[in-house]
Write a structure and sequence with these properties.
With 393 residues, this protein is of the alpha+beta class. The chain has 17 helices and 14 strands. It has one domain: Cytochrome p450. A hairpin with a 5-residue loop joins strand 5 and strand 6. Bound molecules: protoporphyrin IX containing FE.
Length: 393
């Protein structure tokens, strides 16, 4: 019997065999154990993203349900979603993202320079968890002196209990972070600058009825918190997933060292091969007939991104990592209304992270005995990844 349990630890280690069975045997799968439906074929996942009026986000986008009711974009439907997305989009203009390139390179270089000369280092703790948070801090204008505190709070925030639940300590950290953002906003109101926070404060936003208004401090705090959540763990887990690919396929790593111009496409392939966000949760707003069955109204449905990107109907030999693969209509960043707002920034960070990594460490391998995994139903990634590097860089 086919059983898919995203909370099962063996499945978390390697979900791809069960994804294949889902696509072939039960493309509209119902889990009695956890009471959810799952769509796993590429075309169905894309269609789900493109029909947000049937697949709503407003009941939360995780199976655990801890995000239900949060004031974040990702769990909103229109008209609220449209209003706040318009606000958030201002932070990601191509000009702003390009302006961050030098900062991303300098930060990635500095973090990696700190480990040059050692035999090994932990990619997660010493590199991938630090880079994206510094980038978000720079984007929104968090002063350098406060960044270490942001790191400590975010580390506590990302921590999950054995069963994937949010611990008391993580809750307290999120309250502290909210407090810190409110203080920053109050300070920025007194001394505006040329950063995203000041921009959000001073630019009126149009309401659905055509009137305009400024955001209040509560809304501003939430937009900043949202970025700290959405832009941190995804990039932090994607880098190690990509490093694993380059350890498994050393000849492709050598190609990237010889020709860094291949790195942008390699990043696209990393996002396809093992994306950090494995499903997007939805809620059916009516009965949905699909593949000979009916998903009833008011059901939890998950669009399994991790299965869609390995669908052989879309990508030949999907289990093979191939930096030359042509990838169109990428679904690792979602699609349609909730398409990842930070995708251009994430791509920039990933490209530069791998350029700087391979420049310093053209040759590396994993110490498999030290690898540990994160157990969270929709985030797939590593908690530790010790990388053994050649001493002369
Ligand atoms: C490898 C890195 C990343 C991946 C794989 C990723 C993936 C995703 C996915 C799949 C969604 C859609 C969720 C849904 O449909 O329910 C999403 C939404 C979002 N992402 Fe990302 N993300 C990444 C990095 C970032 C970064 C760096 C930021 C910002 C700094 C960011 C900000 C957001 C926001 C604000 C949304 C909500 C958009 C909306 O609901 O309208 N993400 N992301």
């Amino acid at each position: 019997m086919l059983e898919y349990d995203p909370f099962d630890r063996l499945t978390a280690h390697n979900p791809f065999p069960v994804y294949q069975r889902l696509r072939d045997e039960a493309p509209a799968y119902y889990s009695e154990k956890h009471d959810f439906w799952a769509l796993s074929r590429y075309e169905d996942v894309v269609a789900g993203h493109l029909a947000p009026e049937i697949y709503s986000s407003a009941q939360g986008v995780t199976l655990e349900g801890q995000d239900r009711g949060l004031p974040f974009l990702i769990v909103k439907d229109p008209p609220e979603h449209s209003f706040h997305r318009k606000v958030a989009m201002r932070m990601f203009t191509p000009r702003r993202v390009n302006q961050l390139a030098a900062f991303v390179r300098e930060t990635a270089g500095r973090l990696l320079d700190e480990v040059v000369g050692r035999d090994s280092f932990d990619v997660v703790h010493e590199f991938s968890f630090r880079l994206p948070l510094d980038v978000i801090s720079e984007l929104v204008g968090i002063p350098v002196a406060l960044r270490e505190r942001v790191h400590l709070l975010s580390d506590r925030l990302a921590h999950r209990g054995e069963d994937g639940s949010i611990s008391e300590d993580a809750r307290n950290a999120s309250i502290e972070l909210l407090g810190m953002f409110s203080e920053l906003i109050a300070e920025r109101r007194r001394n505006p600058g040329d950063d995203v926070m000041s921009l959000l404060m001073t630019t009126p936003v149009e309401e659905p009825d055509g009137s305009t208004r400024l955001l209040d401090d509560g809304e501003l705090t939430l937009r900043l918190m949202e970025l700290a959540f959405a832009g941190h763990e995804t990039v932090a887990r994607m880098i190690p997933n990509g490093v694993v690919a380059l350890c498994w396929y050393p000849e492709q790593r050598r190609e990237l060292v010889a020709d860094p111009g291949l790195i942008p496409n390699a990043v696209e392939e990393m996002l396809r091969w093992d994306p950090p966000s494995h499903y997007q949760g939805r809620w059916s707003t009516r009965d949905i007939p699909l593949h000979g069955t009916v998903i009833p109204k008011d059901s939890r449905v998950i669009l399994i991104t991790g299965a869609a990107v390995h669908d052989e109907r879309k990508y030949p030999d999907p289990e093979v990592f191939d930096i030359h693969r042509e990838i169109d209509r990428h679904v690792a960043f979602g699609f349609g209304r909730h398409l990842c707002l930070g995708a251009p920034l994430a791509r920039l960070e990933l490209r530069i992270a791998f350029e700087e990594l391979l420049k310093r460490f053209p040759d590396f391998g994993m110490d498999e005995s030290g690898i540990t995994r994160v157990y969270n139903s929709n985030v797939r990634g590593l908690a530790t990844l010790p990388l053994v590097v050649a001493k002369d860089g």
